[in-house]
Amino acid sequence: MTGSRPPAPAALAPSARPARLRPGSRVAVVAPSGPVPPERLEKGLALLRGWDLDPVPMPHLLDTHPELDHLAGTDAARAGDLQAAWCDPSFDAVLCARGGYGAHRMVDLLDWAAIRAAGPKVFVGYSDITVLHEAFALRAGFATLHGPMIATEAFLEDALTQESLRATLFEPESVRTLGLDTAAALVPGTARGITYGGCVSLLAADLGTPRARTRAAGGLLVIEDVTEDPYRVDGFLTRLLRAGALDGVAGVACGSWKDCGPYDRVRAVLADRLGPLGVPVVEELGFGHGSPALTVPFGVPAVLHAPAGGGRCTLTAEVPALR
Fold first, then answer.
1. How far is CA 53 from the centre of its chain?
2. Residue 21, pLDDT score
3. 22: how many CB neighbours lie within 10 A of its CB?
4. Which positions ≥6 away from 309 have C-beta within 8 Å?
5. How much of the chain, in percent, has pLDDT values that exceed 90?
6. Helix, strand, coil percentages for the chain (3-state, nearest 5)
7. Per residue in 30-62, pLDDT tens?
8. Which tens digits make up the pLDDT trace of 133-160?
9. How, if at all, do strands 281-283 and 251-258 pair?
10. Which residue is catalytic, options 228, 289, 291, 305?
11. Helix (H, G, I), strand (E, B) or coil at 256
């Protein structure tokens, strides 16, 4: 009918939360993206054992692709490790060793029907793992954790990063609020929504692919990135805006922009691209590639508080990240 509008998209709904970990929990360690440095892996495994976890390296964890050395093994091998870990009931969690590049290449090789049937598990990663966070949310309906990977510098060398992940895994009710002193309101206000997001470059790269997110109504967007010049951050946000992928978003929480150029230039891009949305926007909340890299739950209802006049900015999950 002339002049009619399409119906408004349904708001994002909370995802199914996995159970928290306990002493002795068996956790699989996988490499969905880039190759893993063995010496860093050993240090990360030792830290997990110090938490009384039982970390199990999956068979292809230390592989390198025979021709493409930016990948941790073949696409089929990387997907197979993740699939096997998820569908094995003896594992309580699947932890990523590192990011890099490659998740886009293997995400469609996973049997999402089998993953849904296996039910939710703790899943932790960030950076290139953004692709998998989105897939678990959209294809399985599972909540995940945007958190440090065990063979990365942030996890191995930053005590606050380690403690944020440990507390989230074992005592999630104790870390429901993120709010470092660095956090500030780019656009003041208060918003409630379902958390989702990750690396903004990966969110933009996902546009137009099968089963990609096409709506943000009722969502709290959580974004960060690394080694992307301000003009590229501008481009990623502009692509999301032009595609309508941010229509209806309730608020935006920004983390670190490590090695993305002078931060005042990055801030100017964020203000220019996100400000016109007319929703609360908080910067420097302390997650992402920088230190600390605090753990953020995805798929849970949360409140973003961005008071005007220099008050404390926070992102608070309304339920613990894990049951």
1. 22
2. 98
3. 11
4. 188
5. 91
6. 35, 20, 45
7. 999 999 999 999 999 999 999 999 999 999 999
8. 999 999 999 999 999 999 999 899 999 9
9. parallel
10. 289
11. strand
67 in active site: no
Contact of 102 with 79, CB cutoff 8 Å? no
- Model confidence at 1: pLDDT above 90: no
Cα pseudo-dihedral 210, 215, 221, 227, rounded to 10: 40
Catalytic residue among 146, 164, 224, 283: 224
How far is 179 from 222, CA to CA, in rounded Å? Answer: 14
Question: Is 224 among the residues known to form the active site?
Answer: yes
H helices of 119-252, where?
130-135, 153-157, 159-170, 200-206, 230-242
Average pLDDT over residues 252-277: 97
As a whole number of angstroms, the distance between CA 108 and CA 139 comes to 11
Alpha-carbon torsion, ordered 145, 164, 179, 233, to 10 deg: -50
For residue 69, the model assigns a pLDDT of 96
174 is an active site residue: no
Contact 115, 89 (CB under 8 A): no
Report the predicted TM-score, pTM, of the whole model to 2 decimal places. Answer: 0.95
Q: Which of 15, 25, 127, 256 is catalytic?
A: 127
